[in-house]
Amino acid sequence: AGLDGRVKDQLLGCMAELALGEVGLVITGHAHVAREGQAGPRQMGIYSDAMIDSLKRVALAVHEHGGLVAVQLAHAGKNGIGKDEYAPLSPSDVVVDGVKKSSAMTVDEIKRTVNAFGDAAVRAVKSGFDAVQIHAAHGYLLSQFLSPYYNQRDDAYGGTLENRAKFLVQVYEEIRQRVGKSFPVLVKI
Hints:
Strand order of the largest sheet: 1-2-6-7
Helix content: 25-40%
Order of helices and strands: HEHEEEEHEHHE
Distance between the termini: 25 Å
Shape: globular
Number of helices: 5
Oligomer: single chain
Structural class: alpha/beta
Radius of gyration: 16 Å
Largest sheet: 4 strands, parallel
Strand content: 15-25%
C-alpha cells in the first residue's frame, strides 16, 4: 500500500492472483483501524472513510475472479510505528532500557479503539468485502491484552482471563452491532 495506507496495484495483483487460484476465501493482510495502530510502512489502512474507494478496488479485484474476500482488522498496539499523537499504545507501559516505548491505554482510549474497529467494519461493508476478521494474534494489541505477560493492568481489563478478554469481546460486540447478524465476523487468535 501507499504510505497513507491506500491500496497499490501490486496488492491488487496479489489479491486477483489468489482468487484466480480458486482460494475459497482471501483474507487480506492486516489493515490498521487507527493511525496509532499502524504496524509498518505501506500497511493497508482502513482507519478513515477516505480509504473506502481504495478498499473497493481490493474487493473488486477478488470478486472479478469469482472469489470472496475478508479484510483483516488490526491494531499494532506496542508494535506501532507512529510518533507524537500516533504514538504506540499498549495494555501496560512498555519500557526498554529505561526508555518508554509505549503507554498503557486509558479506558477512554480503549473505548475509542473499540469504536475504531466498529468504524472499520462499516467501511469494510461499504467497500464490498464479504467478511471481516478481527486480528487478535501475533502480539498485536488485542493479543497483548489477552497475554498476562504484556497485560499488567489491575483494572477491569487486567488480571483474570475474563478481564483480559474484555477488550476483544467489546470489539466483537461493537462490530456485530454495526454490521448486523448475517455479516460474517471472524477472529484470529
